[in-house]
Design brief:
The protein is an alpha+beta fold and about 200 residues long. The chain contains seven helices and nine strands; from the N terminus they run βαβαβββαααβββαβα.
Length: about 200
């Protein structure tokens, strides 16, 4: 189970302001490309699941993930997640020809998608995706991720924190934002849900 605090920032100015404040705690920045897949009859989506290939930093690495049963409430997201590393060149071949996902035997995650959701019977199609610039900070014992997500229909901004104590982490982050006059709202949708909706919240 992945548990995250997810707070939405209103615009690029708030994102830049927060980036400046957190700069002493910066550890790394990732350039991510996220692509999603389903069957032609949407077996995954109809079961509240999403299959994603995430490429990092010009294809230096790739992670395949299967997320299901998402729940987001009051700025805290909970979702069942299974993920693993996959060879980037193999992943790119699957992007070019999604039917290949049904024949990759080396991936536990892809086997789960085929066996538990019956995706192997129909094969896969690519739904498209989005790019994300993720800056990672280590701040007050928390790992913060400041996201600039580039959809075809606009750019969204969020700060996220994966934690086993979401209410306490949310309180600390909210206090920091309020002290520095940075507006925010609780994220009501995952990035995948925003992508599928075709519009920014």
């Amino acid at each position: 189970m992945e548990v995250e605090v997810k707070l939405r920032l209103p615009n690029s100015a708030a994102h830049q302001r927060l980036s400046d404040l957190l700069s002493p705690f910066h550890r790394r920045t990732h350039l991510q490309s996220n692509l999603f897949f389903d069957t032609p009859s949407a077996r995954l989506s109809s079961n509240l699941a999403a299959l994603r290939l995430r490429f990092y930093d010009s294809d230096s690495s790739c992670v395949v993930s299967l997320k299901s049963k998402p729940l987001i409430s009051n700025g805290v997201s909970r979702v069942e997640e299974d993920e693993e590393q996959i060879d980037p060149s193999l992943a790119r071949a699957c992007v070019a020809e999604p039917w290949r996902l049904a024949s990759v035997e080396s991936s536990r995650v892809l086997r789960r998608a085929r066996e538990e959701f019956g995706c192997g019977e129909e094969g896969f199609v690519c739904l498209g995706g989005f790019r994300n610039v993720r800056a990672v900070y280590e701040w007050k014992g928390l790992k913060l991720e400041l996201d600039e997500t580039q959809f075809d229909f606009g750019t969204g901004y969020e700060i996220e924190c994966e934690t086993g104590e979401p209410e306490e982490a949310k309180r600390v982050i909210e206090d920091f934002l309020k002290e520095n006059g940075i507006e925010y709202e609780y994220s009501a949708l995952s990035k995948f849900a925003v992508f599928r909706s075709g519009k920014l919240p």
